[in-house]
Amino acid sequence: MKKFLFSLIGILAGFLVAALLFADLTPGKKATNEESSSANKSNAEKVYVPFGEKDEYYMMASGGHSGQLFVYGLPSMRKIRTVPVFTPDPATGYGFDKGTKNMLGGKTWGDFHHPSISETKGDYDGKFLFANDVGNNRVAAVDLKTFHTADIIDLPNMGGPHAGVFVTQNTEYVALPTRFARPLGGAYASLDKYKEEYKGVVSMAKFDQKKKKFSIDYQIVLPPWSYDLSDAGKKMSGDWIVMTTYNTEFATSNMEINASQKDRDYIVMVNWKKLAEEAKSGTKAKVVNGIKMIDPRDVKGSIYAVPVSKSPHGVDVTPDGEYFVAAGKLAPIMTVFSFEKAFDEMKKETKKEEFGIPVLKYENVMEREVDPPGALGPLHTQYDDKGNAYNTMFISSEIVKWNYKTGKVIDRTPTYYSPGHASAAEGDTVKPDGKWIVALNKLAKDNFLSVGPSHPESMDLIDISGKKMKHVMTAPVDPEPHYAQIIKADKIKTQKIYEKDEKRPFSTWNQKDARIVRKGNEVHVYGIAMRSKFIFDAKAKRKDEVTVNKGDKVFFHMTNIDLDQDITHGFAINDYDLNFEVQPGQTNTLEFVADKEGTFPIYCSNFCSALHQEMSGYLLVKP
Ligand code: RUQ
Ligand code: CUA
C-alpha cells in the first residue's frame, strides 16, 4: 500500500509536489515543539489513568499481516493484549491445541485489515468482533466475553476480502467484498479472458451468536473491478451497502498506471435485503462451489453504480445514515453523496454501463465536493457527534475536520506520519462520541528509539472534543494497524472464568477422576491442571507420569480446575515443540503422535503460583 501510494504521488502532481510534501514531513514541524510546557502537562493529564482506575475505551486494532488483534486502552494508549486470530501463537498455544488447530486448518499466516464490532440498531453492542483475512480468504469472530477467537471460515470464490469486514446495522450480515477479481473457485483462466472469466465477489456471511458459528448465506457476483473499503447503510439507508471500486479500466498488469486511467470509477450500491430475499426464496441463485451466488443484474432494483472521481479509497456512511462520503485517494477531494437523492434517481430511467448495471447521474446524487487546499491523498472518513467528518490525508500527513452538511473545512492537524485510517470513539455507530480520534499511521520515521532500518508504525491520539483538534500523544505500534474500532469500555462484559460445566466433553473436575484410557494405539489422558500440580492418573503410583509407546497417538484433555480469576496454567512438553494453555475452568485438548522415544519433562509454562516451578511431570515414550 505504501509503495503503491507513493508512486501515485508522482502520477498525481509530479516531483515538485512530492518534494514539498517530504519537506512537510520533517520533525521540525512537530506541534509539540511549539507548544508551551504547560500545554504538554495538560496533554499528559488527559492520557494519565491513575493506578486503580481504568481506561474509558477499548481500542480494537487490527494487527495487519501479523494476523492478530491488538487491544489497547484509551486514552492511555497502553496495549493490553494481543489476541491471536489468524496466526498461531505459541505462547498461549493458539493453533497448538486441537480446537484452535482445527480452526486454523494448517494455515500459519493471515492479513487482518478491518475489525468490525457486532451492532444492534447501528450501535456497537460489544458482543463479538469480526475480522477479515485478506491473505487467505477467511473471516473470523472473536468472542468479546473471553477475547478468544470463536470461529473462522474460509470464503470460497474470493480474491482477498479486503473491502470488509463491515456489519449491517443489526449484524444481520457480516459483509466481505473482494479486492482482486478472480475466476470463481480460483480456477485457471488466462488473463486475456479477464472481462469474461474473472469476477468480483461479495460474501454475505451470517454469524449465529448462540452457536458461535459462521455460515455464508449468499455471495454477490459482480464485474471484475477491484472493490475498496466499503460500508453498510444506517437507518434510512439500512438496506444498502456501498462499495468503492477502482480498476474499472480492467487492467491486468502494471496496475499503478493502468488502473488509474479513467477520470471516474464507481461507487456500487447494493440492496442486501432484496438479494437476501432472493437467496432465500427466489430462483435466481446458482450454487457455485457449495455457495448460493446471485448476479444482482437478475434482481431488479438491487444494484446501481454512481460515478465517482478516479480511484477512490474508502466510502463511509454518515452516522445519520443520510449520506455516504467517498475519499478520493487520486483525486484529492471528498465527495458527499445523498442517499435520498440516489433513491429518487433510481426511480428514473437510467443508462447502463457495459456490464448492464444501471448508472445513476453523478450531478443528481452528488451533494458536494470538498477540496481543502493542499490536502492530498484522502483515504478514510470518520465522524463525531456534531455533524463533522474527519479525513486522513495520507500524502499531506494530516487530519482534516470539516462539516459534511455544509462542506466547510473547520480545522487541520498534522499527524506523524502518513495516516491510513483514523478511528474515532464509537466512530462507526449511529452516535459517535466526539471525544477522541486516533490516526493509524503507516510510518513513524524518527519518533522513537531506533530499532534499525525498519521502524515501528505509529498512532496519534487527538482530542476532538473542542472546535480545534489537539494532538495529545503519539505511540509506536507493531505493523500494521490498518483499522481499529474504539468502543466504550462498559459495553464489553467479559467473563471472569470459564464456568464449570460437568457435561463438557473431555473435562475432568474431580481429582480422583483423572485417568488414562488406552484405545488401541490411542492414549487419552483426562488430566487436571491445578496449583501446583498436574494429575494425569489419580490411581497410579506417580500421578503425574504418562507412559506411552512410540507411535501412539496421544491426547491430553486438560481441565484447569482452579476457578479463580487469572490463574491460567500452561502445558509444555520439553523437546517436543508443544505448548498450550488452559484458562481457569477451561478444558483444552492437545493431540500429537509420540514419534520420538525417550523421557520428556512436562511443565507448566505460565507462572501460576509460588510452586509454579514444581508444577511438572513426565512423558515417557517407550521404544
Ligand atoms: S484500506 S489504509 Cu486496507 Cu483499510 Cu485504507
Ligand atoms: Cu501452573 Cu505455572
UniProtKB/TrEMBL annotation:
Q: What class of enzyme is it?
A: oxidoreductase
Q: Which InterPro entries match?
A: CcO_II-like_C, Cupredoxin, N2O_reductase_N, Nitrous_oxide_Rdtase_Sec-dep, Nos_propeller, NosZ/Cyto_c_oxidase_sub2, WD40/YVTN_repeat-like_dom_sf
Q: What EC number(s) would the UniProt record show? A: 1.7.2.4
Recorded GO terms, molecular function? copper ion binding; cytochrome-c oxidase activity; nitrous-oxide reductase activity
Keywords (A to Z) from UniProt: Copper, Metal-binding, Oxidoreductase, Periplasm
Q: Which Pfam families match?
A: COX2 (PF00116), nos_propeller (PF18764)
Gene3D superfamilies xrefs: Cupredoxins - blue copper proteins, YVTN repeat-like/Quinoprotein amine dehydrogenase
Q: Where does the protein principally reside?
A: periplasm
PANTHER family attached to this UniProt entry: CYTOCHROME C OXIDASE SUBUNIT II (PTHR42838), NITROUS-OXIDE REDUCTASE (PTHR42838:SF2)
Q: What is this protein called?
A: Sec-dependent nitrous-oxide reductase
